[in-house]
Amino acid sequence: MMSRAADRLKVVLNHLDGSHGNVRASFTSAQSVSHHHPQSFRYTLDTDILTPEQRLSYEENGFILIRNLVSAEDIEKFRKAFEQICKREVKVPGLVVMKDVSIAKSEFVEGEKAVTKLQDFQEVPGLFRYCTLPQILKYVECFTGPNIMAMHTMLINKPPDTGKRTSRHPMHQDLHYFAFRPADHIVCAWTAMEKVHRQNGCLVVLPGSHKGSLQEHDYPEWEGGINKMYHGVRNYDPNHSRVHLEMEKGDTVFFHPLLIHGSGMNQTEGFRKAISCHYASADCYYIDVKGTTQENISDEVKDLAFRKYGVDSLSFQDTWALRGRLVRGERTSL
Ligand SMILES: CC(C)CC(=O)SCCNC(=O)CCNC(=O)[C@H](O)C(C)(C)COP(=O)(O)OP(=O)(O)OC[C@H]1O[C@@H](n2cnc3c(N)ncnc32)[C@H](O)[C@@H]1OP(=O)(O)O
Ligand SMILES: Nc1ncnc2c1ncn2[C@@H]1O[C@H](COP(=O)(O)OP(=O)(O)OP(=O)(O)O)[C@@H](O)[C@H]1O
Ligand SMILES: O=C(O)CCC(=O)C(=O)O
Ligand SMILES: [Fe+2]
Ligand SMILES: [Mg+2]
Hints:
This is Phytanoyl-CoA dioxygenase, peroxisomal. This protein is α+β, with helices and mostly antiparallel strands.
């Protein structure tokens, strides 16, 4: 498994060497295209998919909610694939299985009830199929353009809160975690696998916050503990007006990586499930985060990668290049 990862890294690094130079060039031309609408659209591309209202709404709010986009049959299949992994019927190299910190530190809990989140399921066909669904990619293309990479995958199984409030996810911008740009060509698709509402900890967003810049993130000072890598925006103003995104099974929200969002605690007995993928244009380019506000997360990621693969030469960018998979068009840069 280690040698597979190392092999893949070699391929990826060779690929990166060969293509870095072209990246900015392809974005320059993309930008000159959008100059045809100088003052109107910054966050969406010209396609026939979004209605003018949807397009304006994303421009203004930083997200759009599409109802009933993924079928109940597909969601059932993702649920089964998740179950198999929790029962350890399949072992997957590279998969991150995360437990809520207060569950991990309490008595032994097994199976599905112990797993709060799966990350990096790009090698699990039964889950990765989500990232390739044509009805999802159709929308993704409105933000990324035709060359699409699936960069980050998650299945979130938000547990009933243990009483320590660790089931909350602090308000954050996903771009804090990403070593690629430009932000406007990155989008998250997040699909509810069941009804999500305020009680079970639906997504909470700050509309319009995508128009701001990337903020400093750090661990919030929460008494009951905080999950590893759950950074929140520093100086979060709890009085800022928020929107709770209540969704039905199959509803999908597409949101910008600078949109400030989080989720409240799960006050029900059920495990609130969602599946998501972050996409980026394959024409994006990697950045070095040294000396930026992202250095704290980059250090944590490299430290975990070292412990997991035993390689200390992996850069933050490499960890992304290894996980990214092309889902449409050409792998031009990322
Ligand atoms: C845009 C997107 C990227 C945004 C996000 O998703 S932000 C969240 C990103 N999260 C991640 O990348 C997942 C990070 N978590 C992990 O990789 C894992 O859960 C690990 C922290 C490595 C722990 O996994 P593993 O080593 O398998 O767990 P073990 O049961 O062996 O426990 C080892 C020690 O770690 C502790 N632990 C387990 N889970 C967590 C947790 N969630 N938060 C904080 N500490 C944790 C555990 O209690 C144990 O501690 P000690 O007994 O050694 O003191
Ligand atoms: N100091 C903070 N820093 C960053 N994020 C925070 C902070 N305080 C709260 N949050 C986040 O804001 C979001 C909403 O918090 P909260 O726990 O109040 O949930 P809620 O959905 O509003 O629930 P309720 O209906 O009970 O108020 C959650 O993502 C939470 O983690
Ligand atoms: O499903 C959730 O609670 C939100 C998760 C999230 O925003 C993230 O992991 O980046
Ligand atoms: Fe997020
Ligand atoms: Mg609240």
